[in-house]
Specification:
This protein is of the alpha/beta class. It has one domain (9-165): 2-Layer Sandwich (Transcription Regulator spoIIAA), CATH 3.30.750.24. Helix content is 41%, strand content 21%. It contains 5 helices and 7 strands. It has helices spanning 32-44, 62-77, 89-98, 134-147, 151-165, and strands at 9-14, 19-27, 49-53, 57-60, 81-85, 105-107, 118-120. Helix 3 links the parallel strand 5 (81-85) and strand 6. Helix 2 (62-77) packs across helix 4 (134-147) and helix 4 runs antiparallel to helix 5. It starts with 8 loop residues before the first strand and ends with a helix.
């Protein structure tokens, strides 16, 4: 039997110039749609500065890594920036393994300036908006391929399986 992970919770707030997202627990495909929908909403509001706080993150699966890769790739095209703060142990290894560290600015400590801001609700209650879909998982994994050619070997089986279900 596989490992059982605690649920992850995402919280967010805005500072004067950035969107700050805190990841608590294990971020996986089971809760990835909440993060994906929130990021898309912030991007349509033309936000180009993000800070992801990982101090309480226990781990990320490839779907969540792919969602973050998509954000980083879109920000690169818009001359935006994303800070990854407080990464350690397993989450740091995962970020480096797939190449997210090539586009995100990795900062060991959380800058004091991002700790105070206006709360933003991340809505996990609307079941229609937060459904886990094969399309979301496939898109996330394709972002990982776009980010780093070495990811093709890592995720080719997942992508092949998801493309068959389309």
């Amino acid at each position: 039997m596989g490992a059982v992970h605690k649920d992850s919770a995402f919280s967010a707030y805005k500072t004067s110039d950035a969107v700050v997202i805190r990841i608590k627990g294990y971020a996986s495909y089971l809760n990835a749609s909440v993060l994906s929908n929130f990021l898309r909403k912030m991007e349509t509001s033309r936000h180009k500065r993000y800070c992801i706080l990982f101090e309480e993150c226990e781990g990320l699966d490839s779907t969540c890594l792919g969602i973050l890769a998509g954000l980083l790739l879109r920000l690169k095209k818009q001359n935006g920036i994303c800070l990854f703060c407080g990464l350690k142990s397993r989450p740091l290894e995962s970020v480096r393994m797939v190449g997210l560290d090539k586009l995100a600015c990795i900062i060991e400590e959380t800058p004091f300036s991002v700790l105070a801001g206006q709360n933003i609700k991340i809505d996990a209650a609307d079941k229609n908006k937060t459904q886990i879909t094969p399309e979301l998982i496939l898109e996330a994994h394709k972002f990982l391929l776009e980010l780093n050619a070495h990811n093709k070997v890592r995720f080719q089986d997942v992508i092949a399986l998801l493309e068959k279900t389309e």
